[in-house]
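Table 4 source record.
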Amino acid sequence: HLERFIPLYCEMMKPKCKIAKTFEELLNKVIGMIRPQYQVRVLRRSEKVNIVDCAVAKPVDNSMVSADILECGSLMGIKEPQVGMTVKKSGRSSGVTHSMIVATDVAIKVNVSETEYGIFTDQVLIGSMSLPGDSGSIILTEDNFAIGLLFAGSELATMANRIDNVFDALHVRI
């Protein structure tokens, strides 16, 4: 069960300004008379960025939860991610995979939905090591220290939130 989560901020948001809302309504009335299948949206750029994309789940049955990471073993602690560090993860879709940290302190624009994007800062860029469905996997050093939480990826790269940011945001400790 979802216990708690950190809300995501999209790059563009609906305006709270009454003038912008009125302008949008007027435009849509005019467009509706000419092309009823079209609609105009007035959006404003958000000042907020995302640091993490994470949540905490409460187990339905505690007996189904293990402290070990599947096919990796026990978590030894946390480490600061470093460029060139070899890392691994155990993911639902791709199993255990290995790669290397390419960059730290990365800012990136990520799809939040089909039409919305979020800006994420202070992220870790890792070489390709994930498939859709691997999100939420913990990224580990080869000696099982956590460095990040996988939240996005492609055929070319994997993105992770810094694990200390995740723990701080969710108020959790090892």
